[in-house]
Target: Amidohydrolase
Amino acid sequence: MSRVIELYDYLHTIPELGYQEHKTAAFLADELKKAGFSVTTNIGGTTGVVGVYDSGVKGPVIALRGDIDALGHIVEGKLCAMHTCGHDAHSSMVLAAAEELVKTGAITKGKLKIIFQPAEEIGTGALAMVKGGAIEDVDMIFGLHLRPIEETTMGKATPALYHAASERLKAVFHGVAAHGARPHLGVNAIDAAVAAITAVNAIHLNPTESYSIKATQIIADAGVTNAIPNEATVIWDVRSEFNPTMEKLLEKAKSAIIAGAATVGATVDVSNYFAIPAAEYADEAIDILTKAIIEVYGNEGLCPPIKTAGGEDFHYYIKEKPSIKAGYFGLGCDLTPGLHNPAMKFNKEALEQGKNVLIAATKIAMDR
Model:
């Protein structure tokens, strides 16, 4: 059995939710120490782990990032942690690549930094690592993700996986409670919520800029069915291919929500949260990953860039440190029926290929 599959098989048995990845972090830290890395744990007060291999010769600092948390699924009425997004696979490839790079003496200058990041699913893990100083000296960083079979297949990889910006918009509407028989004495918060949803649905931006905004949750309950509720909450899922488009969309949505509530005499408090930036990669990093994929797969294994409406907090590394050169590739592995599905499965043989792409990319980056 290959080392990367051995690592995956073990990590898959110890899934842990965001910021609770204690067994996972301890295992990864121990393996990095065995491989010759200087290891720091509890980065930013979290379960984050950073390993550094210093060649002792002046040169670039290249980082490989693996996310380590699992997802929570309700199984037979109980919350269970399950690796259904491939983070165990990502960490296995990063660790195996790190071990091999050191073992083969490939790091002849600069530093190789390994970042094992918690809480990607929560959307705050990358920020915690940044605040903990994980990327202060990093010149270039690479990440990766398994891809569903609909996007690319086994034996192929894309050098640029473009995630969208995503946020949640929350509006709490305030009306006036009243008896259902005397609606003229109240202000129905549900009416305000509906008016706001309609107003948001009427927003139009440049159609060449990919975006979406849709209400995904509404909560309003006066406790009885013959009373007008004085409060209602609506959540919108907001996504955009580009960060500037996201800013415009949020601005227009907030104005539409306030105006919609005002049409029925209600007030509203609007806020946004769970903000994940869109992907912004360095041309140099994409070029390196392109060369690495061709080196591992041949020209026939190189896929064009892939765009997805899904989010990924890896992109906080670029947002928080604009000077960093970032690249992120997508790995074909015949993954079905989809990410975040409790029945998710894929061809584990792809892990060897992904590991080799990371190794090739690191060597190319070090030699520039």
